[in-house]
């Protein structure tokens, strides 16, 4: 049904409730109202990269790995898969009377915060550092989750509105101060795009934004409701409203916090502060009208989902048989193939003519390194070691050594430091080639409270791997065998001189529960890597010249404002082909480019268009992404691709946060940024096109 029809049904239902009943529905764990035929409903569910925390589900690569595909069509398909499996689980759970947490159809995804600082532990939940890429991929995930029929397949949620990207340790009391220019240019565009696309929910952040708690910000709510016309429901981050009086100190009591949140427009409380809502009503801090307004918004969503009495849809017939079906698993595998980024290749890859392959490293046989955070459960996991063992069974011998702990300086507590290196050296010495699998997992980068690096609360202190892994890489590389480093991480890592000494470096992110099979396919050349970096990889030393982690100004941050050459640039990634944009021209709606593959292997590539407003005082320091498209380029052939460029992307933002037409837009069309570092790494530049 339409939103108008659903709202009318919701208003009629809420009008029959007592105020106590209506207030009870503003909790994330809303109880049943039996006399009105209202079943219990839990609003808390997750689907960041596949259905999470609800048993078995198809496991996609972590969101940052999905972003590296630069493939909006694929992202939409992944959203549809998550919605389909979510419906299957909802139907099965509801049939057994189970309406617990993680069993509903309101998914608190996607995370469209901007990954502005490489230390942020939750950055791998996002689509990277660029507003255009984040917006395009986020919109498609929302469309996939919600569908386009008369009934929403599931409800998506844009989070965390709006200026949120660490530090994790401070988020319950921190004030993120951002200029109007940075708000309009960096922090708000993706949220605006998702609202325009019809996202059903928006979640507020923990921190304050320019002095106001994000879950009760008059300024942000004015933007969301009045300027953008958002009609869905607003949810707090979990226990964020409690922070009003325990961390931010903008209120004194739970009743005051509940009242402030409700008054400003927060409809559902993830947490327990709204349990004080009736006391707030008794004290005159809120009105019955406010309570009913929020309840109507929430029941409007439930009616649109077709899960209220007297409603229904074709989705009611989706059975658990679809969960982890072959088509879904294949799509997850495609996402991993397209998202892994080849950072370096001196000709070692793809691997060939192997007699014995050594696989070494703490992430080589790690399941945790496959899945990232906010993950579901897979019925099968395939680590990198297992993927290579399966692929090379009967063709070559695969030797294995763990080599080091992920972060401790020894594998066994009673051993001396670096106790795994001797075995690793023995494996390397007996191998024709070595795959060295290092990196992080969700215990080293993630959300506050969920990780093991308590000192940083999920954030990274620097961009280096733990000392034990660095010692392992150094020792193995000294053996002198052809060595490929496989880096499993969700953010920028500086491998130091190990990257220079290695023959190849493949970044796999967290590739999904069965991602080891895909990594093996890439290493062995069954498919060409084609992912591109959705974030800048900085040198560790560059952190010293960036603004403080707590400074939300964009100066010297991300590719748009970086002031020196990075380790690996945003948009960069090699393939097993040899592709370049050889020609580009302006069209009525954008640009058209010719891409030639002079290599011997078919590959995907990502054509990227960057714009710089020459002569503008308000444009970002460097050219910014304005269009991109993934394209298949067969070996020895040239393909043409047309890219649309929305007119709004040619404007710049002034100090007051206003879009202005300023300067002369000039396009740079290539397979990466039009910077010297990209040209040096790829051997190819971009084609300049005058507007």
Describe the SSE topology:
Elements: H1 3-15, H2 19-24, E1 29-30, E2 41-42, H3 63-67, H4 72-95, H5 131-146, E3 157-161, E4 175-176, H6 180-187, H7 189-196, E5 201-204, E6 208-209, E7 212-213, H8 218-227, E8 233-235, H9 243-246, H10 254-264, H11 277-282, H12 288-304, H13 326-339, E9 341-345, E10 356-360, H14 368-371, H15 384-391, E11 397-401, H16 421-429, E12 433-439, H17 467-479, E13 483-488, H18 497-501, E14 504-507, H19 515-524, H20 558-561, E15 579-586, E16 590-597, E17 603-614, E18 624-633, E19 638-644, E20 652-653, E21 659-660, E22 664-670, H21 676-682, E23 687-690
Parallel strand pairs: 3-5, 4-6, 5-8, 10-11, 10-12, 12-13, 13-14
Antiparallel strand pairs: 1-2, 6-7, 9-14, 15-16, 16-19, 17-18, 17-22, 20-21, 22-23
Description:
This protein has 691 residues and is α/β, with parallel strands linked by helices. It folds into three domains: 3-322, Glycoside hydrolase, family 3, N-terminal domain (TIM Barrel, Alpha-Beta Barrel); 332-522, Rossmann fold (3-Layer(aba) Sandwich); 579-690, Immunoglobulins (Immunoglobulin-like). The chain contains 21 helices and 23 strands. The strands form seven sheets. It has a six-stranded mixed sheet with strand order 9-14-13-12-10-11, with helices on both faces. A four-stranded antiparallel sheet has the order 18-17-22-23, with no helix packed on it. A hairpin with a 2-residue loop joins strand 6 (208-209) and strand 7 (212-213). Helix 1 (3-15) crosses helix 12 and helix 5 runs parallel beside helix 7 (189-196). The mean pLDDT is 97.
């Amino acid at each position: 049904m339409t939103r108008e029809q659903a709202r009318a049904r919701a208003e009629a239902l809420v009008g029959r409730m007592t105020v106590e009943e209506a207030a009870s529905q503003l909790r994330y764990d809303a109880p049943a109202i039996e006399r009105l035929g209202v079943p219990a409903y839990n609003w808390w569910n997750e689907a960041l990269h596949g259905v999470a925390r609800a048993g078995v589900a198809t496991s996609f690569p972590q969101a940052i790995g999905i972003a590296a595909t630069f493939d909006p069509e694929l992202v939409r398909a992944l959203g549809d898969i998550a919605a389909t499996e979510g419906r299957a689980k909802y139907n099965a759970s509801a049939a057994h009377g189970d309406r617990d947490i993680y069993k509903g159809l309101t998914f608190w995804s996607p995370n469209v915060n901007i990954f502005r600082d490489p230390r942020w532990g939750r950055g791998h939940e996002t689509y990277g550092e660029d507003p255009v890429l984040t917006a395009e991929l986020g919109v498609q995930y929302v469309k996939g989750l919600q569908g386009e029929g008369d009934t929403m397949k599931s409800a998506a949620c844009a989070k965390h509105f709006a200026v949120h990207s660490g530090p994790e340790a401070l988020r319950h009391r921190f004030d993120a101060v951002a200029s109007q220019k940075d708000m309009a240019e960096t922090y708000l565009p993706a949220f605006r795009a998702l609202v325009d696309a019809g996202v059903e929910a928006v979640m507020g952040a923990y921190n304050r934004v320019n002095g106001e708690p994000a879950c009760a910000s008059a300024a942000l709510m004015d933007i969301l409701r009045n300027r953008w016309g958002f009609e869905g429901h607003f949810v707090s981050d979990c226990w964020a409203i409690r922070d009003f009086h325990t961390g931010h100190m903008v209120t004194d009591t739970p009743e005051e916090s509940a009242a402030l949140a409700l008054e400003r427009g927060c409809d559902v409380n993830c947490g327990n502060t709204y349990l004080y809502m009736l006391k707030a009503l008794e004290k005159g801090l809120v009105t019955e009208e406010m309570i009913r307004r929020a309840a109507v918004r929430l029941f409007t969503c439930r009616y649109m989902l077709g899960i209220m009495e007297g409603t229904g849809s074709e989705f009611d017939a989706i059975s658990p048989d679809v969960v982890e079906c072959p088509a879904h698993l294949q799509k997850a595998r495609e996402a991993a193939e397209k998202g892994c980024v080849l950072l370096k290749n001196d000709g070692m890859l793809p691997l060939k003519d192997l007699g014995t392959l050594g696989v070494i490293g703490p992430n080589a046989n790690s399941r945790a390194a496959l899945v990232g955070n906010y993950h579901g459960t897979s019925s099968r996991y395939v680590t990198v070691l297992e993927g290579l063992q399966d692929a090379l069974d009967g063709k070559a011998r695969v030797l294995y050594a763990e080599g080091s702990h992920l972060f401790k300086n020894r594998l066994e507590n009673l051993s001396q430091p670096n106790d795994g290196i001797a075995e690793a050296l023995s494996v390397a010495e007996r191998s024709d080639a070595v795959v060295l699998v290092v990196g992080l997992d969700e215990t080293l980068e993630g959300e506050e409270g969920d990780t093991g690096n308590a000192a940083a609360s999920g954030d990274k202190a620097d961009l280096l791997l733990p000392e034990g892994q660095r010692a392992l890489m150094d020792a193995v590389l000294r053996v002198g065998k052809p060595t490929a480093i496989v880096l499993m991480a969700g953010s920028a890592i500086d491998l130091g001189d190990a990257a220079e000494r290695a023959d190849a470096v493949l970044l796999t992110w967290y590739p999904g529960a069965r991602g080891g099979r895909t990594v093996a396919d890439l290493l062995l050349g069954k498919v060409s890597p084609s992912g591109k970096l959705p974030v800048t990889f900085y040198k560790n030393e560059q952190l010293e010249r960036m603004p403080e982690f707590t400074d939300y100004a964009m100066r010297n941050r991300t590719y748009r404002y970086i002031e020196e050459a990075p380790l690996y640039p945003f948009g960069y990634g090699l393939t097993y082909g040899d592709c370049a944009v050889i020609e580009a021209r302006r069209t009525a709606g954008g640009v058209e480019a010719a891409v030639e593959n002079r290599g011997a292997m078919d590959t995907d590539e990502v054509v990227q268009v960057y714009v710089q407003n020459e002569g503008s005082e308000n444009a970002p320091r460097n050219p910014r992404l304005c269009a991109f498209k993934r394209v298949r380029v067969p070996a020895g052939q040239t393909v043409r691709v047309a890219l649309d460029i929305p007119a709004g992307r040619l404007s710049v933002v002034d100090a007051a946060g206003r879009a202005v037409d300023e300067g002369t837009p000039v396009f740079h069309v290539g397979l990466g940024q039009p910077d010297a570092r990209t040209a040096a790494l790829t051997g190819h530049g971009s084609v300049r096109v005058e507007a």
